[in-house]
Structure formats: structure tokens, C-alpha cells
Design goal:
There is one protein chain. This protein has about 350 residues and is α/β, with parallel strands linked by helices. It has two domains: about 1-155 and about 285-338, Isopropylmalate Dehydrogenase (3-Layer(aba) Sandwich), CATH 3.40.718.10; about 160-280, Isopropylmalate Dehydrogenase, CATH 3.40.718.10. It has twelve helices and twelve strands. The chain has helices at about 20-25, 45-55, 70, 100-115, 125-130, 140-150, 175-180, 185-200, 225-240, 255-260, 270-280, 315-335; strands spanning about 5-10, 35-40, 60, 75-80, 120, 155-160, 165, 205-210, 245-250, 265-270, 285-290, 295-300. Strands 3-4-2-1-5-12-11-6-7-10-8-9 form a twelve-stranded mixed beta sheet, with helices on both faces. Helix 8 crosses helix 9.
Amino acid sequence: MTEIAPIALTIGEPGGIGPELAVKVWLRRTQDQIAPFCLLSPVSIVKHAITQSGSDVPLKVIDTIDEAASTFNHALPVLEVANITTDIVSGIASPRTASVVIESITKAVELATNGDACAVVTNPIQKSALYEAGFSHPGHTEFLAELAGPGTIPVMMLANSKLRVVPLTIHIALKDVPTQLTTELIVERCRITHQSLKDAFGVASPRIAIAGLNPHAGEDGAMGIEEQTIMRPAIEQLRGEGIDVSGPLPADTMFHEEARANYDVALCPYHDQALIPVKTLDFHGGVNVTLGLPFIRTSPDHGTALDIAGKGIARPDSLIAALKMAAEMATKRLATGA
């Protein structure tokens, strides 16, 4: 069987827990059966993280990412990007390291696009520090979509061992959800999710469940009409295209064990409706997956955690899950030829 290429792991915010997590994950490479990855970072940042970890972690600077596979078992492979003279202070995000964060992401996407990396796994970024440096994108996902090229429509999926969810609207006020939720949006997101589950997750016939917006999924219009006027037309259109879609379903009965057995992914109208169940079921094992990109991208489902950076207490569980899921997706894509 053909081996997948190494994973490109970005450094994320240097003052956050990303560098520390990369070191911890490498130390658990055998225990957790982690596929080879290469860390894209200035060497100085990695050395700082190793010193803080108090562990004897050998580091090897490599010239090309394909060297990561042969290096990984005995040293942490680092493909150096950018170069900084700024001292890294754990717990403090600085706009002076913004160029490092951006170049690490840009290089990772380039490697994945060229096929030199099988996937991109991104450590968390601190948007406020990037904004101070002139970063013009709303967030990580939008920047990745721009790097991917025109026409790219990214879709956020949160996943763990028990549940996959896609929020149809994300970081907007709850009062704005009914106006942002459209039939066209639901159809678009479902199509992308359906194809991604086939290509990258090996689900031959994906089953998609859609949660209602209102209590009891509107109860036939008694508690809201969005299910009837927006959601049902989308579901009928998708079914007409041969996509297995159920709903709109009452969200309060969708996420217990028996209900989850009836679908492969749940699409939810608003942020918390999707994220509360997935984080409740497996808080530390959650992975953020961006569907709709021409390359695989996963990320740990947490932020930079500046409050605990440098203290040695950050848990690597979510980054481990993100790396393992990226490798699994890459293997599935290779098998399907997608």
C-alpha cells in the first residue's frame, strides 16, 4: 500500500501553546501511533519550547518535507520558515511574530497543494495579534480559502470519535441566524459535506441529519416557520439530487446515542447548537475540519490558551486527534483517488 506523505504542521501563535503541544505530541508519537509530520517554524521558537518542556527532544532541521518520514522516529523534523530575532514570551501574543504565523500557514498550504504534504494541520492563531500587524482576514479559515484559490467555499466541521457536526451559521448573534439561514445556504453546505464524507472519510452513502432552528423543529409552524419555509425546500431539493437527508429534526432529541446511529453528520442552524453536543461528548478529542478545500486541513478544537502557555500543563489530546484524523483522511483520499 502506498504511504501517505508527511503532514505539514504549522506553528500557530508562538506565544501560545502551539509550540509546546508540537513537542508533547512528538514525544507521544509511538504511544499514539502518530503519522510523520513536519513542524513549519523558526528553529528558535522550537528550541524555546523544548527548553521549557524540560524533555530531551532531539531536533533536526530538514531541507524538504519528504525528509520528515525518515527523520520522525528519532528527531522532531523542522522545516524552517521565516526568521525572527524577537524573544518569545509564553503567554503573550505579539504582532511582531505575525510574519512567522502567516508564512507557516502559507508554506503548509503550498506543500499540500503540490502534493508534498498529505495534509495541513494548523496550531491555533491569535487573531488580535495578527490584526495589529495588518492581517485582513476574519480568521484562519478565510485565509486558507483565499490561499486555495477563487471559488473555494470552506465549511467548518467539528468531529470526534462519537459525532460530526456542521454549523450552518457560525460567529454571528443568535438574533441574526434566521436572516442568515437560507435554502441556498443549506443546499450548498450539504452538497460540500456529502462529497467530503465520501472522498475524505470513506463514507460510501453519507446520511445527513438537519436540526430544526426552533424548539420541536417548529412544531408544524406553531413555534416558528423557518423549518417550513427555508429548511424543508432545501431538504426536498437535496433528496431530489440523491442525497440522503433527514429533517428538520428536533435538536433536543438528536444527540443521544441511539439517535446518532441514524446519521453520519448533523447540520445545525447555529453555532452552539452544533458545538455543545460535540464538546460534551468528547471535549478533549475534538477536531476542527475544514471541508471544501482542495487539500485536507484539520486543527485542534481549542484556542491559543495564553493563560496556560509555558506552564507545561496544556493537554495535547486535541492536536493528537487532529493529526490522526488528517492522516486517516489522507489515507481514504488516496484509496478513493479523490
